[in-house]
Amino acid sequence: MIKKRTLSILILIQLLLSCTKESTELRMSDFNIPIITGYYLRNIYGEIMGKVGSPNVKSGDKSNYGNSEYFLVFYPNPCDEHIGVHIKSPVNSSTKKLWITPAIFDERTTNSSIYLNSANIVVGGYPVYQTELDNNNIFLNLENIENGYYRLYLKIDDILLYDNLVIAKTN
């Protein structure tokens, strides 16, 4: 009887400790690595210079991003060790949460059923970088992150935006 009660208490404590608000907001429940199908090439001013593949991104809360109330852009892409991030959001928005997770690059066409199943992984992975922001323009130092493909997420209020990032250091 004592062993069952002790075991029940330990399980309850573990559940309470593992369900913190920050971990559920920054690390989504799906730890599968997101699949990216392309990315936008951006210069140091944030201007789109082209694209590779078919970018599966959500940079704004509306289809016409220029008219979006919420918007995310970072530059340059690919980057080496630093990126600038510009965010558009209403003045009374809550704190912005930004995080970056590793991703897998997959250029297969949407005609493949394998592609369709894997592309449903929009949010996932384990953050290699995360921060909270109060302003709309910041620069991030990514020198401790390895070369590769990543997904950058931004959560403001109840809006989740994401874009695909390539880190390509020359040395």
Structure description:
This protein has 171 residues and is an alpha+beta fold. It has one domain (28-167): Immunoglobulins (Immunoglobulin-like). It has three helices and eleven strands. A hairpin with a 5-residue loop joins strand 2 (38-42) and strand 3.
Question: Could you give the topology of this structure?
Answer:
Elements lengths: L1 H17 L2 H6 L8 E2 L1 E5 L5 E6 L17 E5 L6 E7 L7 E7 L1 E2 L7 H7 L9 E5 L3 E5 L6 E9 L2 E9 L4
Parallel strand pairs: 1-7
Antiparallel strand pairs: 2-3, 4-5, 5-9, 6-8, 6-10, 10-11
Features of this protein?
single chain; alpha+beta; Immunoglobulin-like; four-stranded antiparallel beta sheet; 3 helices
TL;DR?
The protein has 171 residues and is of the alpha+beta class. Helices cover 18% and strands 36% of the residues. The strands form four sheets. A four-stranded antiparallel sheet has the order 8-6-10-11, with no helix packed on it. The chain has a three-stranded antiparallel sheet with strand order 4-5-9, with no helix packed on it.
